[in-house]
Design a protein that fits this description.
- The chain is an alpha/beta fold.
- The protein folds into three domains: 151 residues, D-Maltodextrin-Binding Protein, domain 2 (3-Layer(aba) Sandwich); 95 residues, Periplasmic binding protein-like II (D-Maltodextrin-Binding Protein, domain 2), CATH 3.40.190.10; 177 residues, Double Stranded RNA Binding Domain (2-Layer Sandwich), CATH 3.30.160.
- Helices cover 28% and strands 17% of the residues.
- A six-stranded mixed beta sheet has the order 4-10-3-1-2-15, sandwiched between helices. A five-stranded mixed beta sheet has the order 7-6-8-5-9.
- Strand 6, helix 4 and strand 7 form a beta-alpha-beta unit.
- Helix 8 packs across helix 10.
- The longest helix has 46 residues.
- It is globular, with a radius of gyration of 22 Å.
- The two termini are 17 Å apart.
- InterPro entries: HemC, Porphobilin_deaminase_cofac_BS, Porphobilin_deaminase_N, Porphobilinogen_deaminase_C, Porphobilinogen_deaminase_C_sf.
- Belongs to the HMBS family.
- Its cofactor is dipyrromethane.
Length: 453
């Protein structure tokens, strides 16, 4: 296992309010992440914020090269480990989680949109940092004067490899063409945002514009490249987009203490609803599910405060062993974190009631854009993170009733057929026989780990 130092990101403002600090036995806690430039920028933001919250404690950033990083050109479903029952998203998390389990990392930082909605046993998302703007961004090639996607002439080529974006935009703009930039000059499709921008601006580029996440452009200091944001009714963003999830080993009390003030409860509740919806829909990286969610706190005495909040009864069952995020928004900042042995009765006496209005708009779109199932859920009052998650699950079931189930079945059928054909061609190209012998793809499963300071 090799380690190497990498440049530190510039100091930034803390992502949460600093309160009293705790003394921890160790003076250094290792923060793990992927090797990509954006992942490193995001992780340094988290490490800087944690250092601000815990003076005298260091949070070195260590990056590991995942299988999704090592192979930038092969379709995700051809990379091992992958199966139809295992989301492609796990290609970004499996190897990192193995290192977390071994103790090489104390916590992981993820783009929440890349994290499977159901984690493996032994791990939990403990907190989510305050969300950046979750909308997608329309980015026009330098020198072109277009101000909106509606201004592009028919036949213009837009660069994006996201099936969610392509499906929704095909429906809205059938005269435009959509291509993955990976098909041009072997550009890394899952790689560096700055590289994609430079390729867009190349004199030989066939692309008029790109669709990128506003949050990523913001974090790498490229907001000036955003021509305009995209939102409903044109384009709903991905589940969890713009949010950073902090993953720890389940029951790691030290990590829980480190992170308990790092979370932003409105972000956690909104993303809890979104991930609950996606889990019911069994969607992954390659399913065109779009969403927009808002969470607005209800102050005591305001309309809605006296109503029974969705998920309020769940608070009665929380005990000291419950995942940290289950306490999101309801454990006062000055109250000690429950210990693993605390009973539900003990924990209940420490919680504060909270209410929030949650609004959710979600869609499922066929790959060709011809079928678009949209559900604008009625406003609901929720009282906990789990209540928000359950509301998302309810909205997913309503989407299925409206016809999303048939769309997803068609997509899954087409994916299985494509996987079988691609795997057959890959085996033929690499001389792999029916027993799986041969040269294979040579991707390997070993994780390369390097330190970033």
């Amino acid at each position: 296992m090799s380690f190497a130092l990498a440049p530190e990101t510039p100091a930034t403002a803390p992502l949460f309010r600093s309160t009293q600090s705790y003394n921890f036995s160790a003076k250094s806690y290792t923060v793990g992440t992927r090797k990509s430039a954006l992942a490193l920028v995001q992780t340094h933001l988290v490490a800087d914020a944690l250092a601000h919250l815990h003076p005298g404690t260091s949070f070195p950033v260590v990056h590991s090269t995942t299988i999704g990083d090592r192979n930038q050109s092969t379709p995700l479903h051809l990379l091992s480990p992958y199966s139809s029952s295992q989301p492609a998203k796990s290609l970004w998390t499996d190897e990192l989680e193995a290192l977390l389990a071994k103790g090489d990392f104390d916590l992981l930082v993820h783009s929440l949109k890349d994290v499977p909605t159901t984690l493996k046993e032994g791990f939990e998302i403990a907190a989510c940092m305050k969300r950046e703007d979750p909308r997608d961004a329309f980015v026009v090639r330098e020198g072109l004067g277009y101000k909106r996607i509606e201004d592009l002439p028919e036949g213009s080529v837009i660069g994006t490899g996201s099936v969610r974006r392509v499906a929704q935009l095909k429906r809205a703009f059938p005269g435009l063409k959509f291509e993955d930039m990976a098909s041009w000059h072997a550009l890394e499709p899952r790689g560096n945002l700055n590289t994609r921008l430079s390729k867009l601006d190349s004199p030989t580029s066939p692309f008029s514009a790109l669709i990128l996440a506003t949050s990523g452009l913001t974090r790498i200091g490229q907001t000036h490249r955003i021509t305009c944001p995209l939102s409903s009714p044109v384009l709903l963003h991905a589940v969890g987009q713009g949010a950073l999830g902090l993953e720890i080993r389940s029951g790691d009390q030290t990590a829980r203490e480190l992170l308990r003030r790092a979370g932003h409860w409105q972000t956690e509740w909104a993303c809890g609803a979104e991930r609950g919806l996606l889990r019911v829909l069994e969607g992954g990286c390659s399913v065109p599910v779009g969403i927009e969610t808002t969470v607005e706190e209800i102050q005591k005495g305001e309309p809605g405060w006296e109503s029974a909040g969705y998920g309020e009864e769940i608070l009665k069952s929380l005990d000291g062993s419950s995942p940290l995020i289950h306490f999101s928004g309801v454990l006062p900042i000055e109250t000690p974190l429950p210990s693993p042995s605390d009973t539900a009765d003990t924990v209940r006496s420490t919680l504060q009631p909270r209410r929030a209005r949650i609004k959710l708009l979600a869609s499922v779109t066929s790959l060709d854009g011809s079928v678009h199932v949209l559900h604008e859920a009625p406003e609901a009052v929720v009282a906990s993170w789990r209540g928000a998650e359950r509301w998302g699950e309810e909205c997913a079931r309503r989407l299925i009733d409206l016809g999303a189930g048939e769309v997803l079945e068609d997509i899954n059928r087409m994916r299985r057929e494509r996987e079988e054909e691609d795997l057959r061609r890959a085996k033929e190209a690499n001389g792999v026989n029916g027993n799986g012998n041969g040269n294979g793809h040579g991707h390997g499963n070993g994780a390369e780990v390097q330190m970033s300071a």
